[in-house]
Amino acid sequence: MQVEDFLDPYLGQSWGSLGATVQRDGDRITVGLGYPARGIQADAAERLAEFLGLPTVDLALTFKSDAPPAFEQVKHLVLIASGKGGVGKSTSAINLALGLAAEGANVGLLDADIYGPSQGMMLGIEEGRRPEIVDGKYFEPVSAHGLKAMSMSLMTTDKTPMIWRGPMASGALQQILGQTLWGELDYLIVDMPPGTGDIQLTLAQQAPCSGAVIVTTPQDIALLDARKGVGMFAKVDIPVLGILENMSVHQCESCGHVSHPFGDGGGQQVAEELGVPLLGQLPLSLSLREQSDGGSPMVSSDPESLISGQYRDAARHLAARLWAAQDTDPGPSISMVED
Questions:
Q1: Are strands 142-144 and 147-151 parallel, antiparallel or unpaired?
Q2: CA gap 268, 260 in Å, rounded
């Protein structure tokens, strides 16, 4: 057995067939993967030792994406979407972005919810802070929790309603995306608005998207809308990387009783129907909500928590899916429309 024959824990394919690089320096084995995987290094070393028939393996997992840039210096544009609001999409988007960063990637976060931007508050960016303007037309993204972030909330106040028709909002989003100086990023996570309207279609059709993650709850109506969201991405040829089920279970802090307030198994069912993985099942958590509202997202503020581990696992899984689907074709260039 060779290291190249070892099956990747997320993809079920051999590292050799996926294009991983293997270097040996004495007893040290360094494996270069196409997705960030700091969090599984110890577990992978144990499994690899068993696979090779050795007592132990001194394993180092490194990450370097060979994907061509989707646009500018951004290699992957990943949409975090939902068929309806209220399912924890924005909370998941920020924690998935932080999960990727914790695993060793350079990550940006774009809040594409023009009408109801929330990432500024969730990142703890002080009210009134504005992105710097470069050469009179480019935005310098705001740095928060190790992410490069941009949101309409950084250009308005939380009391400013965005009373725009669809084309105006879509044009504004394209300008924010295309005129932000993102620099070199492995992943740009886009927190999409809920539903399947103008903004979603504009971004899906005119930006070089690498894939999408659908966030849902086990509730029947949420699953119905999640299927519609998947259908929209299918029509515009954007692969769905997986389903993330939020609020899947609740455990009473007093007695430990476990319940399923929104149903049980719905996310798994939808994932199986669509032939995509279930990236994770996140619990209904008061602390997750409080930390998000307080500008201290869970993966950053409590990295050793169970929920942070679940988000990091989901982040590794979606990144692994991108690696498996990697193409040398850089795709279409972004089209900008000024309103």
A1: antiparallel
A2: 14
